[in-house]
Amino acid sequence: MIKLKKLKLGAVTVFLLGATLAALPSPGVLATPNQTGKQDQEKPMNPCNPCAQKKAQNPCNPCAKKAQNPCNPCGGKMASGEVYVAATSHRGWPKVNTKPLLSKAHGGMFVTSYTNTTAQSAIRGAAASFPVGAILVKDSYANESGKPGAKGTVFAMEKTQDGWLWVTTDAKGHITGKGNNQEMKMCADCHAQAKMDYAYLRSN
What we know:
6 strands; about 25% helix
């Protein structure tokens, strides 16, 4: 019986000694008990979330700077000194929609569209296309809890000898973007699907 107890005690001693040696760092390696925890703290919260960075690296990041153009968050340009007259003188024109409509294509904002006399005549006559001189202007308003809020970007399309001229301005009519189908490709590509000569004429 005494020999058996000694054997058991020896086995336990060997086991504990082996466990202790295994826990010790191998030769040439310094023990850093908090290294793993420190690395976890320094690891970025979420590399897929650009808003998690203290300083945005991408000017197209909507968290970094408020975009001037709700249709194109990467194209936020400062307004120029040039004023597009139609963007300030269209309020007396016929409305396409009697009340603001929510437009996902225009940054999820509410919009109201207007047409000048030339464009209105083509619409009423069910023409296949607009004549030179036709102008359509779209006011946009911020979506504030499901209702139109502050006025935002003004969008316009003007029919010229060379086709449609696309224009965006700030709320006061100062131009932020201007060009033909090639220069304002985003606008042209979207409106190319419209039933009447690049114009969406939804009303209510």
